[in-house]
Amino acid sequence: MGSTVRRERVVRMSVEQPLWRALMGYRVLTMLYAIGLFASAYEVYERPWVAIAYFAVLAVWTLATLPQVSGARRCTKRFLTADLTVAVVGILLSPVAGHERAVTGGSTLPSIWTAGAVLAWALKGGWRWAASASLFIGVANVIQRGDLSRSTLHNVLLVCIASIAIGYVVEVARASERTLARALEIEAATRERERLARDIHDSVLQVLAMVQRRGNALGGEAAEIGRMAGEQEVALRTLVAGGLSPASRASEDAALGAVVRAVDEPDRAGDPADADSAGPRDLRPLLAGHAGARVTFSEPGAPVLMPPAAARELAAAVSAALDNVRLHAGADAYAWILVEDDPDAVIVTVRDDGPGIPEGRLAQAEGEGRLGVAQSIRGRLRDIGGTAEWISVPGQGTEVELNVPKKK
Fold first, then answer.
1. In sequence order, which ranges of 219-328 are alpha helices (DSSP H)?
2. Please, is 205 exposed, middle or buried when counting C-beta atoms within 10 Å of its C-beta (0-12, 13-18, 19+)?
3. Least confident of 1-10, 45-54, 184-193, 283-292
4. Which run of H or of E encompasses 298?
5. Which helix (H) or strand (E) holds 197?
6. pLDDT surpassing 50 at residue 90
7. For residues 23-44, average pLDDT
């Protein structure tokens, strides 16, 4: 396998961040609204200087604390407590300012700005924090009014229900974000596992299978080595397929060196294709090496340019398809490779004259942990946005079509 490890980056999307931005705008607009209400009824206040002093503090506080309500991280408990205190003080100062309507049912000095303070608690801590903040606002309104009138109860319930609902939505959004992030992490880990499984199939499993066959043919001590290699092949197939079957300690020790060498040696040799990662790569040279006495290679006259990573994966899938031809159709089978460079896709067809694949055999092989089709071919094509299709008629050979769309 190549020495370069591809890493999946999980992008965490914040569903609640737009709510924080909306809260920033709400606080500024409601502050201006409260000041406008005061200015329009300035002459009816007995002590307008109390209201002016409060609005001066409210304006400075609202504008200075905008960064604190830009996100959950900066919105601390200390800030929330101070913010709620500003709202409660404004409610209690309303009758002190001498506005009769503040006592008889009109708006308080901060007016609907107080809802912004409660909403900040809801966004930060969820519906329980929202309920607690609403309780303080409700008590302050009752104290300021002097009794629990219908209008007072209506206003308190409205703020309470709205803030609790928003707090609950935020909690659900956060839970959804965590679930999505976990799902993306699992998907990234699964894709990496599939990539490793393909590389293992292309190297280690084939080496172990060859050792088993040659050992059984030679007999003697070689047969024992072949038996241990067979045990290790079964265990490794089960592992990459999702589980682990027990194998003897002796076979593990005997196969460990071969496994490590098969994995590490390509890393030390390096991937010659990596040097050409700066631009598109011609697919034809990557496939031309397969041509031989029993493999016919047909290519276009012009370069078939693809992204380097896609070209390598497609070439590896072709190699895996030819390995299947040699394994299942026999060493005497003929194979044909046809490369087509269409305007919308690169299509590589691998055809043989073997006995064909019985119906249902591919699904059965995948269930048995044999990953030549599931991972080395389909998995590689899926990773680069392509598809792999099999056409096989018993007694008439097999045709594999590898299709990789070109990115616009």
1. 221-241, 249-269, 283-288, 308-324
2. buried
3. 1-10
4. strand 295-298
5. helix 150-200
6. yes
7. 88
Which is higher by pLDDT, 190 or 3? 190
DSSP annotation string for 23-51: HHHHHHHHHHHHHHHHHHTGGG-SSHHHH
Three-state SS string over 128-172 comes to: HHHHHHHHHHHHHHHHHHCCCCHHHHHHHHHHHHHHHHHHHHHHH
Amino acid at site 331: A
What is the signed CA dihedral for 366, 372, 376, 378, rounded to 10 degrees? -50
Q: Is the pLDDT of residue 332 over 60?
A: yes
Contact present, 337 and 318 (Cβ < 8 Å): yes
Q: Maximum Cα–Cα distance for the chain, whole Å? A: 111
Give the per-residue pLDDT at 356.
78
Other C-beta atoms lying within 10 Å of the C-beta of residue 106: 15
Q: Distance between alpha carbon 129 and the CA centroid of its chain, in Å?
A: 31
Q: Which long-range contacts (CB under 8 A, 24 or more apart) does 184-192 make?
A: 184/8, 184/10, 184/11, 185/10, 187/8, 188/8, 188/10, 189/8, 191/8, 191/383, 192/6, 192/8
CA distances from residue 10 to 1, 48, 362 in whole angstroms, order as listed: 24, 56, 33
Residue type, 205: L
Q: Can you give the pLDDT at residue 32?
A: 94
CB 396 within 8 A of CB 389: no
Looking at the structure, give the CATH architecture of the domain made up of residues 274-408.
2-Layer Sandwich (3.30)
CA distances in angstroms from 197 to 265, 370, 371, 376, listed in the order given? 17, 10, 8, 8
Are 238 and 244 in contact, with CB atoms under 8 Å apart?
yes
Nearest Cα to 243, choosing from 85, 368, 86, 121? 368
Between 124 and 331, residue with greater pLDDT: 124
Domain locations along the chain:
17-176, 274-408
pLDDT in tens, 137-157: 888 888 877 666 676 677 778
Bridge partners of residue 404, in order along the sequence: 346
Predicted local confidence at residue 3, as pLDDT: 38
Residue 157 has, within 13 A of its CA and on its CB side, a CA count of 7
